[in-house]
Amino acid sequence: MHYMTPEYKMVGFKNYAKLLASRDFSQALSNTLVFCVFSAVFSIALGLGMALLLEKKFKGKSFFSGLVFSPWITPTVAVSLVWMWIYDADHGMANAVLHLFSLPGLKWVGSSKTAMLSVIIVTVWKSIGYNAILYLAALEKVPRSLYEAASLDRASKWGTFLRVTLPGISPTTFFLAVISTINGLQAYDQIQVLTQGGPAGSTRTLLYLYYQLGFQQYKMGQAASAAVVLMLAIAVLSALQWALSKRAVSYR
Amino acid sequence: MSKDKAINFIAFARCIKIGFIAICAALMAFPFAWMVLSSLKTKAELMSGGWLPSDPQWLNYLEAIRSPLLRNIGNSLAISAASTAYQLVSGAMLAYALAYMSFKGKGLIFALIMGSCMAPSAATYIPSYIILSKMKLLDSYTGLVVSSLVSVFGIFLLRQAFMQVPPSLIEAARLDSASHWRTLWKVVYPVAKPSFAAFVLINAIASYNSYMWPSLVTNSPDLYMVSQGLRHFFIEGGAYGTNWPLVMAGSAIVVLPLLAVFALLQKWFVSGLSGSAGLKG
């Protein structure tokens, strides 16, 4: 591999101009946005749902939380292979379930219409457990006195959830939103196994574009420009988290 | 009487809730179960549908083990152990300096560490690749380990834990004129043990599972780590249509031991993760 040589010449912002003008880049940008937003929203909402279910003490609680958490520790490549088989258009489990409800089967990773959905499902499934564990810890820290006050006020269950629980766990929600987005910006393993960015670039995120430019097409300059765009996005998100977490702490 | 009814109703509600939890857990665990079930079927049986394998094909596992997969697992174990051990020692030393010593430029060093903690690791791949190639370490075990000797996340995790150690303990060790090294391992370590455990678990697993970076810097199949090995295994059969039972057996060989380790150490994982919230950014 000799695609990087010690000689170089300065090209100014040419690499950026080339990258930003390409159709691949704008497609990758919107794919990244869709991927990050949907996987973050669903994994956080479902993680909170799981945590609320697991909040009370009951027999077998640690077994159940173990099950929910287990996808997080297993290699993404291994579980993506399992999902590949589940998504198999002819004999896969996913279509068998759809047929059960007499719905037509989908092509899943094989069609540019559903490939992104397939990747998001795997990503959400893998991260629900992590989010649930963090939410469980956060739920324990909401002061009991607030719940007592709410029940004295005869607040409804839903009202208590909206006015006591949600604000109490909002620092965790915010933390998870930022972490999920950062992880989404850096997702590679599941995309590489399930779709390789395809079909027709429909699952090519900014990071995957960076990989293809740099390590498949050996356009190191443009790849590095893509990495800088990615870094800027993450820097902005991290700064946002930093500023808001300071504010959240000063409330206490 | 009405009290009994109320208790019955509560018991009923509990049953419903536990049933619902069981369904959710089953949905989460379903891919693992499907993996094991599929791994025990013949290729023909897989195509014809049905739930349980009629005649479990344990030979699939034998065949999967005969592939280089075991070597890949060995590679992953060795690289993960070596880099985590080094990360732990270097991280503990740096965190110790940041937590207990005062020196010029400490703030700057901490800011640098925080900054690189937030930078996406993929963005460092091009420069890291160039450095490794200049050191002639591409496609080697040494290169794989050398490129992950330091974990900035770990330094931060340990520093936060060290800040919680009562200063009187450190003071006492200093009065006894214990060396820094001794203070770190005899005084600080026993108090901060849960954070050390979280550090080891999180970093060892992340390194064991790592995929993108190793696949960029290694070329020879002998050096493949688990994830690369599995992917290769999967592509190999591609020409004749994927041999799903075999791929599933391979995945199971990789995934099941990890799940077993997790089941044994679940408590440490959970406490470590909850403790790390608000740290990693």
Structure explained in plain terms:
- The complex is a heterodimer of chains A (about 250) and B (about 280).
- Chain A is mostly helical and about 250 residues long.
- Chain A has one domain (about 15-245): MetI-like fold, CATH 1.10.3720.
- Chain A has 12 helices and no strands.
- In chain A, helix 1 (about 15-20) packs across helix 12, helix 2 (about 25-55) packs across helix 6 (about 115-140) and helix 11 (about 205-215) runs antiparallel to helix 12 (about 220-250).
- Chain A starts with 13 loop residues before the first helix and ends with a helix.
- The model of chain A has no long low-confidence stretch (mean pLDDT about 85).
- Chain B is mainly α and about 280 residues long.
- Chain B folds into 2 domains: about 1-40; about 65-275, MetI-like (MetI-like fold).
- Chain B contains 13 helices and no strands.
- Chain B has helices at about 1-40, 45-50, 60-100, 105-120, 125-135, 140-145, 150-165, 165-175, 180-190, 195-210, 210-215, 225-235, 245-275.
- The longest helix of chain B is centred in the first third of the chain and has 42 residues, at about 60-100.
- The radius of gyration of chain B is 25 Å and the shape is flat.
